[in-house]
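Give me the fold.
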Amino acid sequence: MYHLYFIRSRSAVDDENYYDSKTDVYVFGDKRGFDYFVACITAARGRQNPLPLVDAAPLRNGMRAVVLAPTRRGGTRPRIKFAERVIFRRRKPAMELIIIGNRQGYARLAAVVSSLASKGPPLMEHVHLDDMFDSWVVKRSVSLNIRAPLENWSRRHLAEYDHAIYGMNSYVLPPSEDINYLEPSPYTLPDPSNPYLRV
């Protein structure tokens, strides 16, 4: 059993010259979950088909996630994009995180997640991957806020993050007026040729 959760949230940049807000996905897990995440990213480098990340224990706050086959764009420079979309689970809207990059981008992401798994303290140590600061993250990406994993999963050790993971936050879905027009539909994998997923 492993624990790996993608929790949708929001972040904002607000100073005297600029304001912007975007989706910020928190990544929580235990060491087994991070090992699984790294294995999926590494396996995706050699695949021609998307690789859905299996929910160990789906959460109402959690996003599904899928890693697409690597693109050939970007030459030898690492490139990666994090996107999101609305899907339906049991005819109710939910969100899915889409990870797409070239082989070098997947290698760098795997290295980032692996190195964080060896640091501490759990949850406090973190890496924030954002297209404003990381040139290898393609615009316009959602952000990933990857928190150092717990050795063994325990709600007692989650402290202030317990509610973010197991509670119900207001960012689980986009505003209802943005998605109310959508009709429930069967799940299909993302189309990597979509221009919004261009790396």
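The radius of gyration is 16 Å.
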